[in-house]
Here is the input.
Amino acid sequence: MKIFVLMTLLVGLVACNGGKDPASVKLKTDEDKTFYAMGYMLGGNLQRLDLKDPELQALFKGVSHAASKTKSEVDMTVFQPKIQEMFKSRMTQISKKEKESGNKFIDDYLKKNKNAKKTASGLVYEIVKEGTGAMPKATDTVEVHYHGTLTNGEVFDSSVDRGKKISFPLNRVIKGWTEGLQLVKEGGKIKLVIPSELAYGDNGAPPKIPGGATLIFEVELFKVNPEQAAAHSKDDGHGH
Here is the structure.
């Protein structure tokens, strides 16, 4: 979880805040904006905890006290060991809720989309456009456009939006992609509904993909390059 590294960095980021309400802090200089950007990135990891306002305020108070060398209001020898335990417990709860929601989404999707099919692994797919070329193998490199959303429609990653196709070895991506792209022909387009166990699991991919999340991808397969995986480096996109 690297929770202790995260907390240490947060301490440094708010050292000059002076206990002010974060909403009242003005970003006047480029340095202010840079620190804000750093805090925003780090805070994204805390989305996994689904913090309520009182919990966020308690977190900020602790950070502020540590940064200003104010004595802790709690016995750190008692509560520090609880941090990792709480973090893991909270993430497990969130992941469970996401999985339940994802399972319902998949059930509803299959009922509404008669052309959709579910494989033995739990992957749901629907051929949007039939291709005419070869079907890739797991060892092939593929060139695609993709658009990824959560079940609520929120876009978390999209080569389509970036306007640039990508190529990657099919055996170096999430399981749902490796399996799903082998079901469509070159020149075709496929829609994938991927349960968390075939995607990013309980940990998710913060800050945009929560733990346990079911992912939806529309993928257009432009080209298959047989068994050239070794010639390509692993892409860092969310689909793979």
Q: What stands out?
A: Confidence is low (pLDDT under 50) at residues 15-19, 228-237. Strands lie at 117-118, 124-129, 141-150, 155-158, 166-169, 189-194, 215-225. The chain has six helices and seven strands.
